[in-house]
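Why do we bother with holo predictions? Because pocket geometry can differ from the apo form. Keep that in mind while you read this record for P-hydroxybenzoic acid.
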Amino acid sequence: MKKPRLALLACAAVMAVAAFPACAQSASKLKVGLMLPYTGTYASLGNAIENGFRLYVSEQGGKLGGHEIEFYKVDDESEPSKATDNVNKLIKRDQVDVLVGTVHSGVALAMAKVAKETGTLLIVPNAGADALTGPLCAKNIWRTSFSNWQPGYATGVIAAQKGYKKAMSITWGYAAGTEAVKGFTEAFEKGGGKVVKDLTLPFPNVEFQALLTEIAAQKPDVVFAFFAGGGAVKFVKDYDAAGLRKSIPLMGSGFLTDGTLEAQGASAQGIVTSLHYADNIETPRNTAFRNKYAVTYKTMPDVYAVQGYDAAQLLHSGLTAVKGDFSKKDELYYAMGKTTIASPRGKLAFSAAHNPIQDFYIREVKGNYNVITGVAVPALADPARGCKM
Ligand code: PHB
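The structure, written out:
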């Protein structure tokens, strides 16, 4: 049984609150460990998630569910081989109460194993590894983003509706890419298409040339791609430079063009993707969020910022329901499961496996924006294959 680590309990245990005013002062602090990539191809994603999380905390006057928040940070470098050591820095060294992370599916899988063993609450603000809300699902593991299957599947629905018959896929050969391709293939082939070839390269390589040559030779009707961050910028530019943009439509999970458009410029124009967020969701909630984010960070938010913001909202909502009593874990998780969050993306509810049930939009790149042109699949839930809670 994991010991609650709230400073309040530590102080009470030594019966010294009155003698040590510092204890009383830090009485209700909750330690949040941010394990995110701050270097490498996903660095901008990690920063956006942290910004989003901090923005919500500051909107609540620096508190979640009545607790002041104390942050601890580790740069996970999107490096699975270092993940267990990194997560243990937060759990054993810093004694955090809550883990928030990460972006990379392989790193998140290692985090989830440690979270399960130690009973630490883990909120995943991006990584889509299907297993996190599948075979690895647990009462203390939550996700405010998506499963890799979800945007892949939604993109497959759109590609089939457009009447494409022959597709190729291209991605990094790790869970995020291969699971997105599986989702795409499932929907595309259900809709009458065929994925004739899957191309991969190791994460985070960006030497796309040989693979682009193969696409040009095979001439499919459409290409499905999963790339994100710095790798997505380079891929979209290389696809255009290889002369493929005009001849073979490029589609992808929306990460291909999210938070990347300024760098991709003309090469990204017209790309159609599917995702659970888009820049022009015209609701008061999204407008207020975007304005506040822009003023605070001098840059526009993207899907990653939204997911980080909602990780803080989910924690706040659960804690508020248990009147801030973090030791009441069963009640806390029950409340988190029942909550519907007013996310900038729209209403956000959670499946029994703790994954978002959400609309997947059809988006098209226009200028520096991913603009909604329709809904690919409303209220799409991950099938949660293998989850036994
Ligand atoms: C992942 O590794 O799960 C991942 C990374 C970046 C994304 C989406 C998914 O944009």
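Residues 103-105, 126-129, 148, 176, 228, 255 surround P-hydroxybenzoic acid (CB under 6 Å).
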